[in-house]
Amino acid sequence: MRIAVTGSSGLIGTALVRSLREDGHQVVRLVRRPPRGEEEVQWDPKRQWVDTAGLRGCEAVVHLAGAGVGDHRWTDAYKKEIRDSRVLGTAAIAEAVASLDVPPRVLVSGSAVGYYGDTGERAVDESAPPGHGFLADLCQEWEEAAAAAQEAGVRTVFTRTGLVISSEGGAWGRLFPLFKLGLGGRMGSGRQYWSFIALHDHIAALRHILDTADLSGPVNLTAPTPVTNREMTTAMGRVLRRPTPFSVPAPALRLALGEMSGDVLGSVRALPRRLLDSAFSFTYPHVDEALRAALTSG
Q: Which residues does the chain have with pLDDT short of 70?
C-alpha cells in the first residue's frame, strides 16, 4: 500500500513510518523543505498548499503534523501557532485529498483527548460532547477542518490521542530522566486523571484504523485503564525503583506554566470504546506494563 504521512519526523510519525516500511508498505513523507527523493512530497501548511501530484496513488493519508502543545509557554503568539499548525494544516491536507481524481480510501487525522475538556472523575468515550477551554476549542476546530475530505466521501478518522508513554520523546521523554534521578513527584493534588497509551499500542491502533473499513469519525487512542497523576507517580517510582517524595503545588505550576498549567492539572478520563468495540487488542493496557515497555524499547 502507498501511504502518505505528515509529521513523519515526530515521535509518533517516526515510529509509524518505521512500522509501515518494515511491513513492505511504500511511505510518502510530506516535508516543508524541497524534496530529497521520490519518497518525499513538499507541502506548506501555513500557505495551505500541497503538491498533490505526490499524493496520486496513495490509498491512505495519515496526518500527524502540528506544533508541540507543551514545547513553549502559551503566549498569545504561540497559541496562534498551535492553532494554525493544526487547523490550517488539516484543511490543506483535506482539500488536497478531496481534489484528487482518485482520492485515498482513508484519511487518519490527528486530534487529542483535550477535546473533552476537564472531565474530573467522569469517564468519557467518543460519544461525549466537547468540553471548554483552549484545547477543547482547538480540537473542535482541528477536526472540523477535515470537512473537505469527508464531503468528498473519504473515510475520515480523528485519532483523539492521550499521553503517549515513550522514552524517545514527548512528555515521558522529559519525565523519565527526572524520575530516574529521584526528582519525580505528583503534580497538584494528584487526583487528576491521565489518559495514557504506550507508543507500541498507539502505532498498532493507527495500523488497525487503516485496515478497519467501518471505523470513521472520532476514535480515542488511550489505554482502557486511565490512572490519576498520583497513581502514575507511584507507578513510575515502582517501575524505576526510585523514591517519589516531591510534589509541585498547583499555584507553583500556574506560576511556572501560565495557562498551560490547566492542561497539566486538568483531568481527562477517556476510554477507548470504539477501539475495543472494533476488536482491537492492547498489548500494554496497564500503566506498569506501558512504562516497562517504554524503558525496554528506549
A: 249-265, 298
Identify the CATH number of the domain in which residue 164 sits: 3.40.50.720
Domain of residue 52 covers 2-297
- DSSP annotation of 278 reads T
What residue has cell string 508541540? 68
Angle at the Cα of 247 (from 244 to 252), degrees rounded to 5? 155
- Long-range contacts of residues 260-265, Cβ cutoff 8 Å, at least 24 apart: 260/69, 260/70, 260/73, 260/74, 262/118, 262/133, 262/134, 263/69, 263/70, 263/114, 263/135, 264/187, 264/188, 265/187, 265/188, 265/189, 265/192
Q: Is 119 helix (H, G, I), strand (E, B) or coil?
A: coil
Count other C-beta atoms under 10 Å from residue 172's C-beta: 24
Task: Give me the number of domains the chain comprises.
Answer: 1
Q: What are the pLDDT digits (tens) for 282-294? A: 999 999 999 999 9
pLDDT at 165: 94
